[in-house]
Amino acid sequence: MSLWTNKDRRTHQDDADAFAYDPNGGGLKQWLVGAVLPFFMVLYGITCLSSDQTDIFGPDGRTVAYGTAATGLVVAFIALGCFLHFHFFWRLNERLEPYAARLKSVSLLVFLGGFLFSILRRLDLF
Questions:
Q1: Membrane-spanning regions, if any (predicted)?
Q2: Pairing state between β 53-58 and 61-66
Q3: How far apart are CA 32 and CA 44, in angstroms?
Q4: What predicted TM-score, i.e. pTM, was given to this entire model?
Q5: Among 57, 103, 71, 56, which residue's Cα sits nearest to residue 84?
Q6: Which of 79, 100, 113, 126 has the maximal Cβ count within 10 Å?
Q7: How far is residue 123's CA from residue 126's CA, in Å, rounded to a whole number?
Q8: Per-10-residue mean pLDDT for the chain, 126 residues long?
Q9: Domain ranges in the chain?
Q10: For the CA atoms of 101, 105, 108, 110, what is the dihedral angle to 10 degrees?
């Protein structure tokens, strides 16, 4: 069966639904995706907070956000790193697993708040 005739392709909705359930994998996935990747995301976020600017990559190339709009985006990026940490590291740990769902929800709320704040700041609506 080829790519063109396969009716059961994954969509973005399928990928988003995968984060609603427990992750599968072992210690390697737990440490790489649940600890190392979020560590570098948070480290990049802290670096951007200290410089009060962040890069935004898009289809037209790279642009730089400054000030409070950049702060909102960086907070959203750090919250995304925390979400990955809680989903992959805490959910794959028996002792930490009971707390992971609540912390994932908090990190998503912080992500949405930071992201919406930066959009509203960029449009000068807030």
A1: 31-51, 63-87, 99-120
A2: antiparallel
A3: 17
A4: 0.82
A5: 103
A6: 79
A7: 8
A8: 63 74 82 95 94 84 86 95 94 92 95 93 76
A9: 26-123
A10: -130
